[in-house]
Each structure stands twice: as structure tokens, then as C-alpha cells.
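Subject: Predicted fold for O-methylsterigmatocystin oxidoreductase, 531 residues

User T.R. writes:
Posting the sequence so we have a shared reference for the thread.
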Amino acid sequence: MNQYYSLVVENLNKLEKPEKLRSILGTVAAVGLATYFVKKALGRRSNSTLGPYGEIPTPEGAIYYLGHVPKLGKIPAYTITEWHRKYGPIIRVKMGVQDWVFISEPSLGHEVFVAQGALTSGRPYITWGNKILGEGDRGVVFNDYNKNWKNARTAILNILSPKSVDGFDDLLQGEANHLVNTLIQKSEYSGQVDPAEFIRCSSLNIILATAFGIPGTQSPEDPLYKEIVDIIETMLWFANVIADPGVFFPILSFLDVIFRRERKMIDYKENVIFPLLTKLVKQARESDKDSLIKKLDLIKDEHDIDEQNILVLMSELLAAGADTVFVATLWAFSIMCNYFDIQLKLQKEVDAFISRNGRIPTFADRLELPYFNAFLKETLRFRPPALFSIPRKASRDVVYKNYIIPKDTVVLSNIHTLHTDSNTYVDPEKFMPERFLNDSRSIYACSNGQIHNRDQYVFGWGRRMCPGIYLAENELFNTLTRVVARCDVKPALSSDGKEIYPNLNALHDGGATVHPLPFQLRFVLRESLVI
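User M.O. replies:
I've generated the C-alpha cells; pasting them so everyone works from the same file.
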């Protein structure tokens, strides 16, 4: 909000005519006054219609109109976790003029998001996602729960199914090999390397190859890589609350008049995003390689997917697919470096497989690597790439025990609270792959299974479950098995030779995902290679 306050003051000072300033401020005052009385009236009405239901616990300290926003702190998930521990597994937080209900207990989450999923699978309105990018009810990420969304999601589930993804095995393994080779070479050349851009480049290459059947970018210096990363970061910014203040604080809607925000979004979509995607889709159709585009073309008529919807779906796949796996891999490398004893156990298990089979394991071999699978699950639990689920919206009143979640309330789960709950996980503050050793199922299977068998909650719930789980798990598996098979992941060294470990307790909250702070590592070729 401080960013916007500064921008408002700066632009108001630039207005040439005082009457314009008086007009804007007068409008703000009028809207604020009207909002005050409307909110009072609505508050009286909602309290009087609760009937036999109790009010959902609400933390103290909400400020008129701003709600709890000023109280959320640097990492909102941490603050909300504290509130959950004080007020219980379901709480109501005032996000500006909106009511957000946070859920932090597995059975409660299952009841609200799965058992009553027909009522809680909507999406709250976001200017970028609903009005601009997803114009005409297109896409699956931001689109509300409707027929168009169901058609698009069915199509996406089809092209990202395990059977479909398995057809890209050679490609996924080849890109993993290239990434590991690059990290080893960069470490040998420079002594140590910041792996972030190379991991991101690899994740992006996999999306480009699977979605469009085209060769990936050669390095983070590749113009195509830079162009796509800029698009991804801009789309994530447009979807951020700071870029859409009028949704939470309608009184600030006048900012769009000053900054022409929507016009800039439209221009960016029409002149930057869609031209690039149109070119990539054309290349996919002309390529002799298999691709998700070709698979989508086969079923698009059946699911009423038009050409513009294909562009929207591919833009969502670029942003969601590349970013989540990138962040999860960063955390995995950080953890490997900090827990070298665990890294040695991973190497021992992978080495044993290689000795038996004469090759590095593939994702199809995962059942033979129980400790490795447990490591992947514990990594996602211990340091998830996101601390909240993507917000949903109640399409009708939702009843849970003695509470009622009113229609149009935003509802979401707090992944941080779920993953640090001592009732679910023994010693949740400790990194312990052993907690998952007795469950050999994949992350994909666990996420789609019974609630008492779920291992983590990164990929969502029910009808809104992430459709790309299988691809993400496959990608993580291929990269990490090749790393432990070929090299030791060691801390960077300072100028005087002291080891510098990645900080697992410091993070950057980017809104959609949560990154570790920048770090460097040494990917050192192992002395006793089995392969």
C-alpha cells in the first residue's frame, strides 16, 4: 500500500487544474462516507440473519475500511497461523472491504472444498484474470465456476494426464541432464553458482517443449527466455492485490483513472502476450514433434475451446508451470545442502538402483526409491512453494457445523498452518523424510486420495486441484535423481574459505510463490560415480 500511496501523491501533485484535484478528493470523500453507512447497514443485516449459527472467529484489531491488512506483517501466512492457533481452524479476516475465511485443518478443508465443492469452487473477481486475460469466461486459473470453466478444465486434465505426460519422458530426462551438466560446469568454472536462473530456464524449457514441441532456450541470456520471464513476472504482478487495489478498497478505484491501469493491461495482453503465444502455437502446429497444443487441437471442438481460449490457457500454463517447479527445486537444493546426511542417504539409494539396473532411475521406477519419494514429499511439506491456496469464492451460503460461510465470501486454506500442525505431523519444525517412508504412493495419488492419506496440501483441493501435479512431480524427480547420482551439493565458500549455507528460515514472499533468498552452491562431481 505504501507504493500506491506514494504514486497517488506524486500524480495528484502533477494535476494542472486545482478543480480536478477538488473533484477527485470530493468523489473520494463521498464514496468513503457512502461506504461507511452502507457497511453499517449490511453489518446490521448480516448479524440479524445468522439465525442459529455462530459468528466465525475474527481476530482483534481490524481497522475500519482497511480491515486486518495493516496487521498482516511481512509474511502474512505466519501472522494468520498465529491467529489460527489462538482462534481455531476457521477464522474470518477482513481484507479491506472483503471477508476472507481461512481454513487450517485437513478434515475441515475437505468438508468445505471437496464435500461442498459445488458451492466453494468459484473464484473472486480480479481485474486482470477475469476482465482482461480471461475475457469472456476463458481460462481455468481465474475463471469462475461455470460451464466454460468445466469444459476448459476437462480439456486441460486430458492433455496433462499421466498417460499424456508419460509420452514426454525422453524430453523430461534430457532437460534434467542438461540442467545438471550446466550446474556442474558453472561450479567448475566459477567455483560456485547461483542456480536460480538455470533452474528457471530448465523449467521454462520443459513447458516450451511439452506445450509447443519447440526447442528450449539455450541459457538465461537467450532473448526468448528473457521475453517469457518478463511476461510471467508481469502477469503475476497484474494478478497481485497491489496492482488491483479497487477490489479490496473500492475507494481507490479512482487510481485507474489516473494511471490507466486497465488500458495498460489490455495493451500488454494484445501487444505482448498474445502475439508471442500466437507465434508459439503456430510453431507447435507446424512442428513434427508431439505437443500439448496438438493434443488440445484434437479435443477443442468437443469442449468448446476457441482460439483465444487456447492462448489464455497457454499463458496460464507458462506462468503456473514454470514458476512452481522452479521454486520447489530451489528449496530442494537448499535443503540438500543443509542436510548433507540426508543427501548421502539419497545418493546411497540411487546408487543401489543404478548398480542393479545399469542406468539412472526414471519416474516410472519411483516405487524402487522409497526414501527419495519421501524426501520429495517432505520437501513440499517443509518448504512449500506457496503458503496459501489460490482463493476461492462461495457461490452460496455454506454451512459447516455451527458456522455459516456467507455467499460471495472468499475462502482459502493456509498451507503454512496445515504443514506445521503438530496434530498432523510429529515435530513439524524438523525436516524428516522418514515420516513418509510407509507411504509409497506418488504425490499425484496422495493429492487425489482420501483426506486421511494426504501428505501435503500444495496442489489444492477437489475440483480446483492443480491439473499439473503429475508433470511437476515428474520434473522434480528427474532433476533431483540426476543431481544426487552425479554430484555433491555443497555450500558456497567465502573469500576466506568459510562455508555459506542457504538460509532455510529466510524467505521472499512474492505473493503467488515463496522463494528462498538468493544463494550460491557448489555442484561438485562425485569422486565415486556409479554411472
